[in-house]
Amino acid sequence: MVLIGLDLLGGILTNATNSAKRRYHRQAPGARRARLLFVGAHVLHLAAVGLLVLGGDRGWTLGNTALLLSAAVVVNLFGLPVTAALAWFAPLFFLKLLVCHLVPEAPLERRRDV
Question: Which pTM does this prediction carry?
């Protein structure tokens, strides 16, 4: 789990840089398709977590794959221009509501060996 967390953190820090955004959002033939393929390749991460951490939970893997790919298509098809002053707002707003508010609390498991 530590390696998965470090990989995610590294990806966040890398993909959030201006140079990465310039590269992925350049005006080039196939750039939009390349962004979707990049997201699609990360389905392997979901499969790895489903297999290695959740013991092969196909429902979790398929559900999260569907959510990820659907959201990626929506973002690519309906991306709206954003002023530089508000570039931070939408990601934090959606994180607050979709991830922090709507995801239920996971009950803590008590360790029996303590």
Answer: 0.67
